[in-house]
């Protein structure tokens, strides 16, 4: 192939398309070159990966990281919740208190944005063995009753629920409680549908289900 033919193939053939592509590339370069660099701090929850199935975090405090990110101002302004993520691998976690490192290498950000700082660089978590047990449901009945009437019996269905959580927290729970039941005006009996819960935020009702509480009244002095 002669030099002239090579020149025509490279520079002359489809010249219009190549010229437009060149203009677009130059325009994009100019836009990026003029886009100032900005930084912003964002607070994100720390995501835990490979959480051991037999453990629970034995702490009620939330774990967050303050991450400083840097990038073109137009991209920084478009950041949304969830665009910046901090992740820690818990595959090696064992019962007891453990210290974990957190660095910018564990921060996931969108393309063309960099994580330049993270705080804290270390944090501690306490782990306990996950356990469960069955506890009775204690209903809470409130309200004003007719003169001379009192609650004689409370029927609860189901009478027990399963709870789960960190072992020493579960061991300290002896019952679950219902939401307050307003039985005002009940003269003989009435059935209310409510829910049971445990006040310890680290202990959960394993299989939440509606709780039916039947309030039976009687006259005082019987």
Number of helices: 4
What structural category characterises the helix and strand content?
alpha+beta
First CA to last CA: what distance? 116 Å
Total strand segments: 15
Subunit organisation of the chains? single chain
Structural domains: how many: 3
CATH homologous superfamily heading of the largest domain: YbbR-like domain
CATH A-level architecture of the largest domain: Beta Complex
Strand content: over 45%
Overall residue-averaged pLDDT value: 86
**Percent range for helical residues?**
10-25%
Identify the overall geometry: elongated
Question: What's this entry about, in short?
Answer:
The protein is an alpha+beta fold and 222 residues long. It is 18% helix and 48% strand. The longest helix is centred in the N-terminal third of the chain and has 20 residues, at 15-34.
Task: Describe it.
The protein has helices at residues 3-12, 15-34, 73-76, 167-171; strands at residues 37-49, 55-57, 64-72, 85-89, 96-101, 107-108, 114-119, 122-142, 149-157, 160-166, 176-182, 189-194, 196-197, 204-205, 211-219. The chain has 222 residues and is α+β, with helices and mostly antiparallel strands. The strands form three sheets. Strands 2, 5, 8, 10, 11, 13 and 14 form a seven-stranded mixed β-sheet that branches. The protein is elongated.
């Amino acid at each position: 192939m002669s030099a002239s033919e090579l020149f025509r193939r490279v520079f002359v053939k489809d010249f219009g398309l190549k010229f437009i592509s060149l203009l677009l590339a130059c325009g994009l370069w100019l836009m990026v070159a003029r886009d100032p660099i900005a930084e912003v701090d964002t607070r994100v929850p720390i995501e835990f990966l490979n959480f051991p199935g037999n453990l629970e975090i034995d702490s009620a405090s939330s774990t967050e990281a303050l991450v400083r990110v840097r990038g073109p101002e137009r991209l920084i302004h478009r950041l949304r919740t969830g665009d910046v993520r901090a992740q820690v691998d818990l595959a090696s976690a064992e019962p007891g208190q453990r210290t974990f490192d957190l660095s910018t290498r564990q921060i996931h950000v969108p393309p063309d944005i960099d994580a330049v700082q993270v705080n804290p660089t270390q944090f501690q978590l306490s782990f306990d063995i996950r356990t469960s047990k069955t506890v009775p449901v204690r209903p809470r009945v409130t309200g004003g009753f007719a003169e001379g009437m009192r609650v004689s019996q409370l029927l609860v269905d189901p009478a027990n629920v399963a709870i789960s959580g960190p072992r020493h927290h579960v061991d300290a729970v002896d019952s679950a409680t219902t939401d307050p039941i307003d039985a005002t005006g009940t003269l003989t009996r009435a059935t209310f549908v409510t829910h049971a819960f445990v006040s310890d935020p680290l202990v959960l009702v394993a299989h939440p289900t509606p709780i039916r509480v039947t309030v039976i009244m009687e006259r005082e002095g019987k």
